[in-house]
Design goal:
rod-shaped, binds zinc ion, two-stranded antiparallel ribbon, about 240 residues, alpha+beta
Length: about 240
């Protein structure tokens, strides 16, 4: 009984592991299907811990990206607000609708704050943050731009140039675990279906459904000499 319990636990650990792989695959498929036209953004000025930022964020639930621009001071940030407001319907953006940084971007903003702090007013520092996953965000990546004398771009946790969007690969563990658990019954069902099919094939070929022992010459009711499985009694013909 104990070994059986262990077997079940091991099987479910495998289903969850497969669920985690599926979670990353779903996240990548979702982010690589982001089309430029269908995207909707909210944008607005946000200040976080003394950083003056202008954020343009995706409104999609499955995957999200945001562009974060850092300014030397609040006055420069407000000038960016005016500049954006002067553009009629910029890329599906809703100006002023964003009043705080998206929760999934805040950790990246804090972690890479030096990349968002301009060394002087005439230099812009900016950052892109990408997250993806369904129903929970489970992968993330970031890119930073320094528009200095020699512009510098840096990538963190992104696979580039595979599809049109960069694929984030830094794992967000709580999200990945939850997605993995939610996806695991799919692998349980697939495994059960596979097992049913194998048993069905063995039975119809005159083999023991459990161990594939050739039952040729055995009485229909005799247990399997290999594994001891007693065949299911056939339903009695109706009289
Ligand atoms: Zn058998």
């Amino acid at each position: 009984m104990r070994t059986r319990w262990k077997k079940h636990a091991a099987a479910w650990a495998c289903y969850v592991l497969l669920g985690a792989v599926a979670g990353v695959v779903v996240a990548w498929v979702a982010i690589s299907n982001v089309s430029a036209d269908g995207r909707e953004f909210t944008e607005g000025p946000v200040s976080i811990e003394g950083l003056h930022l202008y954020i343009i964020a995706d409104r999609s639930a499955t995957n999200a990206g945001c562009h974060i621009q850092g300014f030397d001071n609040a006055a420069l940030m407000l000038r960016e607000v005016e500049r954006r407001a002067a553009i009629p319907t910029p890329d599906g953006g809703v100006i002023g609708a964003l009043t705080e940084a998206p929760s999934w971007a805040v950790a990246e903003i804090r972690k890479r704050r030096e990349h968002l702090t301009p060394p002087s007013p005439d230099i812009t520092r900016s950052m892109g943050v990408y997250v993806s996953g369904w129903p929970m965000h489970c992968v993330k990546g970031a890119t930073t731009y320094a528009e200095d004398a020699t512009p510098r771009v840096m990538f963190f946790g992104l696979i580039r140039d595979v599809v049109k969007m960069p694929l984030p690969y830094l794992i967000l563990w709580p999200g990945l675990l939850l997605n993995a658990i939610l996806y695991s019954p799919v692998f349980f069902a697939l495994h059960e279906a596979w097992r049913w099919w194998v048993r069905h094939l063995r039975r119809s070929n005159g083999l023991c459904p459990t161990c594939a022992y050739d039952r040729k010459g055995l009485a229909e009711t005799a247990p399997c000499p290999e594994c001891g499985l007693a065949p299911r009694p056939r339903p009695a013909p109706a009289s």
